[in-house]
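Protein data:
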Amino acid sequence: MKFRILCAMSLVVCSATGLTAQVTLQSSTLSLGQAYTVAAASGPANGSIYFAIDQHVAPYWIASLGCQIDLALSPKCYVFPKQQLNAAGSITLSLVMSSDPTQVGQYAYLQAVTLDPTSGSARSSNLVTVGVHPAPIATQPVTNLALGNDQVMPTAFSFMSFPFYGSTYSSAHVSSNGRITFTGGVALSVESCVNHLTDEPSIAVLWDDLDPSSGGTVGYSEDPTGAWARITWTNVPQFGVGDSNTASCTLYATGDIALEYGNVALGDCLTGISPGLNASTAVPMDMSACDFRVLQGAIYEIFPLSFDLASSAMTFHPYGGGAYSLLVN
């Protein structure tokens, strides 16, 4: 995207006396059909700003640099008309994301160039990578699964089938301990990287020793059109602690998985997805530092002391061949 932006803005760059990365660019979460904001700051007072956004389906993650690049000039590149910064050198735009479901799991590069009207110098912004999440789901009646401590309940999907790591499931096992498994179910109150990789296929939403018999609820809802099913742990405390933890997992018929976190008081837990059955040798990662990445096999993080994903959302999007993209906002 950098190269396409500089080509599209060649007149600005060529007329400038210098190009330095000083403008700060941010974007809110992108969800299908929803409004989002793009904000720039630290630009020249009353300067001109040119935004550009690009998309591509073949991401390349450079582990040694900790960044993502796309050297292809995508046909989805779009340069916005010139905008004007205010006297503080900032601007916020409100835009609407496409409602096209094929956009879920795709990502966009966003960058900007500003022109200082007093000196003629140009400044570039940081490169922002954002992924497209599914649209928020409509509210449906929630069934209280009435789970006790260290209990697992088999739950059949009434309207949909769920594809996961190459297999399709018509039911799932919901654990009181913040975990969803397929093909069987064991409570496993203690989160474990080894079990995450060797046990059955699973989704660790907020895997810890939770106890809904002491407070809160574990609920299940499903879209009657077969688009999604959702499991929610609401205000569930840890065993013997008496705190409150809220998280949800939405399973989509497309194979997308959305994890959303509300208030989470616990510190130690495990979250992520896994094909299980010794099919992956993946190692834990720092999800909070990842706005977009495509990974093979299991994707997970173990939190020994402090959970830093409260009030955040993650989407796992299947790319085929056992690979998923991870979007974190």
Observations:
- The radius of gyration is 22 Å.
- The first helix runs from residue 2 to 8.
- The chain has two domains: 2-133, 143-328.
- Confidence is low (pLDDT under 50) at residues 1-19, 67-73.
